[in-house]
Amino acid sequence: MQLLRLMSGAIIIRMPPDGLPQAGIHGIELTGIPVVHEFMKEIEAHQLVYNFICVPLSNPMGLDSQIMGVQTGYNNLHTNQQNCWNWNRIGNLKDEPSQEGHWIKTLLDLSAPADIILDLHTAGVEAAPHIYYNESQKEHVTGLGIPHLLSWNISSDSFADTNFQRGKVALTFELSSSRSVQGEWVKESLIYLRRFFGLLPKVEGSRIWQTEKQLKKWYSPTGGILCWHKDAGDTVAEGDVIATLYTRKGSMDLKSPFTGVLLLKNPIHAPHERQELAKFLVE
Ligand SMILES: [Zn+2]
Q1: Which pLDDT does position 157 carry in this prediction?
Q2: Using CA atoms in the order 238, 240, 242, 244, what is the torsion angle rounded to 10 degrees?
Q3: Same domain, 199 and 129
Q4: 242: CA distance to ligand 1 center in Å?
Q5: Is 1 within the bounds of a domain?
Q6: How many domains does the chain have?
């Protein structure tokens, strides 16, 4: 098992804010790991006026969980297979002597001195980049060039939300799709971080959505083989044919139930009845 790799303190000037970029708390979410490694080089090169704690590999147990080369470490399957814990929903376990409790305590102790927490995630088999943030922290997420900004009111037990409740700027970035990684995604994600830390000018163009009201899930009407006709990030209108489902009785058109944006596709190609297929941002 790999140990937590911690790199601390590129430069300390005056009374800088502490920043903690972290990646990979979900073991299927790979893009953030090279992004943090590459960003550490930029901290050095530009001598950024922050005191960084970089955690490129925040969940080695999750990363090591795979079946036939496919990452499966979203939940901890090892400790409780009947009711496995989502690795990013274990904040409530921090005082327990379990593996999850020990791990979240380690991450919370590491992040305790930080003022800014950037938790780098990915989503789905195909996703448009987005950020989850508390509505009070809008100024920190605008201008980065991330197309969709999802503001929340009701806190979860996620690592970032737990840190928000500790009084920090705490953001969950969803950089790309999960389980694979491409050089382009790493490059684009580094641009978001450069804008965040002032190395590049801010840009316009992000859309803001209310998570509790506008983020909607979509479920398969029956079992079959799913062929999409839309890409993540595409605009859709209610009633548009967006996919074909090949069932035992033949093929059927699946129409969009919403007008808005197809935010992400779940990693489901052969869904069963009522399995979640996708998430939409709804006008
Ligand atoms: Zn995640």
Answers
A1: 87
A2: 120
A3: yes
A4: 26
A5: no
A6: 2
Cross-strand partners of 247: 250
Kindly state whether residue 134 falls inside one of the protein's structural domains.
yes
Tokens read off for 135: 């509505």
Single-letter residue type at 111: S
The answer to whether the CB of 151 falls within 8 A of the CB of 190 is: no
Based on the fold, state whether residues 195 and 99 are members of the same structural domain: yes
Q: What is the CA(44)–ligand 1 centre distance, in A? A: 27
CATH number assigned to the domain comprising residue 246: 2.40.50.100
- E-assigned strand segments in the chain: 7-8, 18-23, 51-54, 66-67, 70-71, 75-76, 85-86, 116-121, 126-127, 130-134, 148-152, 169-174, 207-210, 215-219, 225-228, 235-236, 241-247, 250-255, 260-265, 276-282
Q: What is the distance in A from the centroid of ligand 1 to the CA of 90?
A: 13
- Model confidence over 165-200: pLDDT tens digits? 999 999 999 999 999 999 999 999 999 999 999 999
- 195 and 245 part of one domain: no
pTM for the full model?
A: 0.92
Residue at 109 is within a domain: yes
Give yes or no for residue 1 having a pLDDT over 80: no
Q: Are residues 113 and 252 in the same domain?
A: no
Q: What separation in Å is there between the alpha carbon of 131 and the centre of ligand 1?
A: 11
